[in-house]
Amino acid sequence: MEPEDQTLAPKTQEEEDTDTAMADTNENPEAIEPESPDSSDLNSDLEYEAQQKFELQDIEALLANEPSNYEVHVQYIRVLRKMGEIEKLRQAREAMNEIFPLTLVMWQEWA
Question: Which residue has the higher pLDDT, 29 or 53?
Fold first, then answer.
């Protein structure tokens, strides 16, 4: 068998850039660029926060219309607790306690 004629095609710019980057990191491992924070994580955090605020507004509206609805009080307290709204959470617990007895778990969480 005769060897085939193997001519090398010229490298593309992308291949040259890759080769250069690999050579840089092989010679200097510190040449690797640090990863930047993913903007999608930031966006998802902002979306989650916006969703929680929207949910809080809905629950506050329900509570204004139905102040004696036990489940709405429980949801309100749960959302405020997730959001870390300490002052609003205290007020929500006090308002609920005026109408309904708080459960043992609710008292423990409050304490």
Answer: 53
